[in-house]
Amino acid sequence: MSVKIIATTPYEDQKPGTSGLRKRVVHFQQPNYVENFIQSLFDSLPEKQGKTLVIGGDGRYFNDTVIQIAIRMAAANGFGRVLVGQGGILSTPGASHVIRHYGAFGGIVLSASHNPGGPDGDFGIKYNASNGGPAPERITDAVYARSRVITEYKSADTPDVDLSRKGIQHVEGMIVEVIDPVADYAALMETLFDFDAIAAMFKTGFRMRFDAMHAVTGPYAKAIIEGHLGAPDGTVINAVPLPDFGGGHPDPNLVYAKDLYDLMMGPDAPDFGAASDGDGDRNLVIGRGRFVTPSDSLAILAANAHLAPGYAKGIAGIARSMPTSAAADRVAEKLGIEMHETPTGWKFFGNLLDAGRVTICGEESAGTGSDHVREKDGLWAVLLWLNIIARRGAGVDEIVREHWATYGRNYYSRHDYEEVDSETANRLMADLRAKLPALLADGFGGREIVLADDFTYHDPVDGSTSASQGVRIGFADGSRIVFRLSGTGTVGATLRIYLERYEAPGGDHERETQEALADLVALAESVAEIGARTGRAAPSVIT
Ligand code: VG1
Ligand code: CO
Questions:
Q1: Which of 148, 282, 298, 539 could covalently link to 362 via disulfide, CB atoms 3.0 to 4.6 Å apart?
Q2: Who's near 62: CB < 8 A, 6+ residues apart?
Q3: Which helix H or strand E contains 146, and what residues bound it?
């Protein structure tokens, strides 16, 4: 067997963030940078001998190179079989399903999600465990610790595997099986949703646009929406994944999916607009003349999930990340089911889903999903919306307004300050933390403060604790401001400020969001001294 043991020296910065290790492509291209991280991962996984590993990515630049490296290293480290998506493609939810469906030991997902791609863009490596979900902190901490002391890695001295050809090949003693990335996923969706009702709706002229943003969801959306559901050709646009996402920023928000937004607000808007991100786990949903915030979308999907066959028996509970609005909490309360508030990042939902305590999860960052996989799932959210629209016979706008009339409206927005100097951002957060006791005692800006803390999560399933997950300032009227630093950026720091204000049923639900939140924006600015410290007059991105 031509296994080689190659000497290496550690890098200091291989600490996985919110969702795996993300850096610039050029950073990953440093000698042995990829190999060090993958070997540190394999060294942290006992009992991998003879097991099955899934490998796939979102098709971005460098995906193909790293897949070949990972396959050779998997063979040298004793895995028995690798399942890899054809062309190296697997969406993040698709990879999660493949891991679960084939009972794999785990999977390596290559993606930097919504970050730009190409030689000057970003790349990322993430590990998912046998439940299909992102590795918990216990594993990512071990990988990081290992990466700091690594001295060698193992690789097989073999030629590249042909990823264009489905079927079985061999690398040393290991089987490599190239699989259709879409087929198993499409079959799963068919078990969850009323495809007949959705197809009937398309037949009677329902119009939709799905923007795949030249990212990984293209082949999935084309096969399911235009194939299985019979939507007209051209319903899915930008459907071919490109290594640089066509030069775009595959982040489905109101800034980077502005064309879709403008179309949906215009005179000739179709009935439904949607988009997904680089790796297919996020979703954007816009009705004709009505943008749905991800937080509202989570609440609405949870309230109506029983209309889809896969959830007809009802849902066990809901979980949302802490900065996500409390709209879903009101749905859980009404349904009399469990509600959980977790730190940002999908890895924190895994235990709750595995334990059957929650069925639907969501994050304000355009991520929604259920217990069908262990990742957020952009296309799943879009299909559940279509299922609900088809069964209720109502449009998006009508569904949203009815929801607010029943539960009240949580006005919600996130303001991001990107590429802030890291030291400045860290100091801003530290000073804010230091102020919390005084804020609680004295209030701020003439307003009473009922909650001022740095969120600590106690996992009710495994008892683990995760501290410093974001500063929360809650006001007596239920309004809230949350401050945290992003864990997915690759340049400097990104300061995220989450703003929320509740308007009960019967209140004014027709205000413009930023206007409704203006007083909270001003409070956030003055309590954290954002302008003075960062030199920024306005956020880089408002979503
Ligand atoms: C962001 C989002 C978070 C999401 C994460 C990964 O993290 O806020 O909700 O889970 O990205 O999503 P952060 O630490 O930058 O705020 V994805 O689609 O980038 O895998
Ligand atoms: Co993503």
A1: 298
A2: 25, 28, 29, 123
A3: helix 137-147
Find the range with the poorest average confidence among 124-138, 192-206, 261-275, 478-492.
478-492
Per DSSP, helices labelled H in 229-377 are: 258-265, 294-304, 327-335, 350-354
pLDDT value, residue 1: 60
**CA atoms of 481 and 473, how far apart (whole Å):** 5
**Looking at the domain 3-180, which fold is it?**
Alpha-D-Glucose-1,6-Bisphosphate; Chain A, domain 3 (3.40.120)
Residue in 381, 13, 458 with CA at minimum distance from that of residue 221: 381
Asked if pLDDT for residue 30 goes beyond 70, the answer is yes
Which ligand gives the minimal distance to the CA of 346? 1
CATH number assigned to the domain covering 410-542 = 3.30.310.50
User: Length of the chain, please?
Assistant: 543
CB-ligand 1 contact for 414 (6 Å cutoff): no
Ion ligand 2 neighbours (CB, 5 A) are 113, 277, 279, 281-282
- Nearest atom within ligand 1 for CA of residue 112: 19
3-state secondary structure of 378: helix
User: Is residue 490 predicted with pLDDT exceeding 90?
Assistant: no
**Dist CA 252 CA 510 (whole Å):** 24
Say if residue 267 is exposed, middle or buried (CB neighbours under 10 Å; 0-12, 13-18, 19+): exposed
Q: What is the pLDDT of residue 320?
A: 98
R_g (Cα) of the chain, nearest Å: 23
Cβ of residue 486 lying under 6 Å from some atom of ligand 1 = yes
Q: Do domains 3-180 and 410-542 have the same CATH topology?
A: no
Instruction: Read off the pTM.
Output: 0.94
Rounded Cα gap, residues 301 and 132, in angstroms: 22
Q: Interhelix angle for 137-147 vs 33-43, to 10°?
A: 130
For 395, phi and psi rounded to 5 degrees? -85, 170
Residue 402's SS3 state is: helix
Helix (H) or strand (E) holding 473: strand 471-475
Helix (H) / strand (E) containing 121: none
Domain parsing of the chain, residue ranges = 3-180, 185-407, 410-542
Q: Which ligand neighbours the alpha carbon of 361 most closely? A: 1
**185-407 has which fold?**
Alpha-D-Glucose-1,6-Bisphosphate; Chain A, domain 3 (3.40.120)
In whole angstroms, give the CA distance from residue 499 to residue 481.
5
Any atom of ligand 1 within 6 Å of the Cβ of 44: no
What integer pLDDT is reported at residue 488 of this predicted model?
83
Q: Do residues 215 and 113 lie in contact, with contact meaning Cβ atoms separated by under 8 Å?
A: no
